[in-house]
Design goal:
Layout: E1 2-5, E2 14-15, E3 18-20, H1 28-31, E4 34-36, E5 38-41, H2 59-71, E6 73-79, H3 85-96, E7 101-104, E8 107-113, E9 117-119, E10 122-124, H4 129-139, E11 142-144, E12 146-149, H5 152-155, H6 160-168, E13 173-176, E14 179-184, H7 188-208
Parallel strand pairs: 9-11, 10-12
Antiparallel strand pairs: 1-5, 2-5, 3-4, 6-8, 7-8, 12-14, 13-14
Length: about 210
């Protein structure tokens, strides 16, 4: 890697970078003055690259990993989660539903309940639409109803399709206008999930006895 002054002529692969000069803000419209920065030349690799690269954490994947771990059986370790307001909201929602989440070095550990949710919780989604949708679906597994709500702005976002899908699966859903706040759970959806789990356990015992 080679560094050169931006004022020098850049070679192939060099990207000259510039920044605004704070002293010239008032006159920028007249003179369009930009202060020079260093150029950084990135040379193409001369041979195949053999390296381990750490991808930056993803908010989308962190949400999904939390929910998948919540309905799994046992402890799941999520390494390198993205800690942001929305993902912390999903984490708190899991905890409200009785799913333990603990901090490990650079990781979260989720103790899944194999899809058996007691319910009866108040789940606050704040301003996170992703949290609202995932946590509403998860709360539908509850043996008793849970109250899911969010910020005034989040209450304006439509959720008719999700609520309709949950009702078609047997979940008990109480909502006004197809949006938050919603009470969900304590329906045949949760009962069917529990019966399916019990049948699976019985079949497993019969197979290995």
């Amino acid at each position: 890697m080679v560094e050169a002054e931006a004022s020098s002529l850049p070679g192939p692969g060099c990207l000259p970078l510039v920044r605004r000069n704070p002293r010239s803000v008032g006159t920028e419209r007249r003179h369009n003055t930009l202060a020079p920065m260093h150029s950084r030349c990135i040379q193409p690799a001369r041979r195949p690259v053999d390296a381990d690269l750490a991808a930056p954490p993803s908010k989308s994947w962190t949400h999904r990993a939390l929910v998948a771990a919540a309905i799994a059986d046992g402890v799941t370790r999520i390494e390198g989660p993205l800690e942001a307001a929305d993902t912390r909201c999903t984490r708190r929602g899991l905890e409200a539903l009785g799913i333990a989440v603990t901090d490990d070095p650079a990781a979260w550990s989720v103790r899944g309940l194999d899809g058996v949710i007691e319910g009866g919780a108040h789940v606050e989604c704040e301003a996170s639409g992703t949290s609202a949708r995932f946590l509403t679906a998860l709360a539908a597994l509850g043996r008793s109803g849970s109250h899911v709500d969010g910020s005034p702005r989040l209450r304006q976002r439509p959720m008719e399709e999700l609520l309709g899908a949950l009702e078609s699966l047997g979940a008990s859903v109480e909502a006004t206008g197809g949006a938050l706040p919603v009470r969900v759970g304590a329906g045949t959806f949760a009962e069917a999930r529990l019966r399916s789990r019990e049948r699976g356990a019985a079949n497993s015992r019969a197979r290995y006895s």
